[in-house]
């Protein structure tokens, strides 16, 4: 059937205009997370090497984002040799996550609050594997190792929770 001459004609848009409208992200306002996340990771990695825990367990848990890169190099069992590969593996990942948080205009206050709560919960859970606080300290050598590991895990948790909240807010 041929449409009548008075019917409105639809003019298709070029595909590039449609796609660019779908994936356009807002511009960054203040780059906070792009430097904050890698900085927290780098400081935590260096501090974690001073208090790595028994056989480097706390260091491994705290630097989970970048410690995978140690498998690409022959670093041995010395935790001090793990620092550079861990930084090379983790900093780019956290740089990209920080860039994403900045582009999505994430607020620093919720990230900090969630990071501290997740860090406190992680520290509590880490110490629960031992009979009491003295046994936990004796096993890993220091409470500072627990604190560094827990704060690193808290920053990962804060990042993931804030990204999840922003994703849900974007769907609404």
Give me a quick take on this structure.
The protein is an all-alpha fold. The chain has helices at residues 15-23, 33-50, 57-62, 83-103, 108-127, 133-140, 143-171.
Give the arrangement of secondary structure elements.
Blueprint lengths: L14 H9 L9 H18 L6 H6 L20 H21 L4 H20 L5 H8 L2 H29 L1
Overview of the molecule:
By secondary structure, this protein is an all-alpha fold. The protein has one domain (30-171). 65% of the residues lie in helices and 0% in strands. The chain has seven helices and no strands. It has helices at 15-23, 33-50, 57-62, 83-103, 108-127, 133-140, 143-171. The longest helix has 29 residues, at 143-171. The chain is elongated, with a radius of gyration of 23 Å. The model has no long low-confidence stretch (mean pLDDT 81).
Largest sheet: none
Order of helices and strands: HHHHHHH
Radius of gyration: 23 Å
Uncertain residue ranges:
none
Give the total of beta strands.
0
Binned strand content: under 5%
Distance between the termini: 41 Å
Count of domain modules: 1
SSE-based structural type: mainly alpha
Overall spatial form? elongated
Kindly report the average pLDDT value. Answer: 81
**Helical segment count:** 7
**Residue share in helices?**
55-70%
């Amino acid at each position: 059937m041929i449409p009548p001459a008075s019917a409105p004609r639809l003019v298709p848009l070029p595909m590039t205009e449609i796609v660019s409208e779908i994936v356009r992200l807002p511009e960054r306002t203040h780059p906070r997370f792009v430097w904050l996340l890698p900085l927290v990771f780098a400081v935590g990695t260096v501090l974690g090497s001073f208090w790595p825990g028994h056989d480097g367990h706390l260091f491994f848990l705290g630097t989970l984002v970048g410690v995978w890169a140690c498998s690409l190099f022959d670093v041995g069992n010395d935790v001090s040799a793990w620092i550079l590969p861990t930084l090379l593996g983790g900093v780019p990942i956290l740089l990209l996550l920080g860039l994403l948080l900045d582009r999505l205009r994430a607020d620093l206050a919720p990230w900090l609050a969630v990071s501290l709560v997740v860090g406190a919960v992680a520290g509590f859970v880490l110490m629960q594997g031992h009979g009491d606080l003295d046994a936990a300290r004796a096993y890993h050598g220091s409470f500072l190792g627990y604190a560094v590991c827990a704060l690193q895990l808290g920053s990962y948790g804060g990042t993931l929770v804030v990204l999840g909240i922003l994703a849900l807010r974007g769907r609404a």
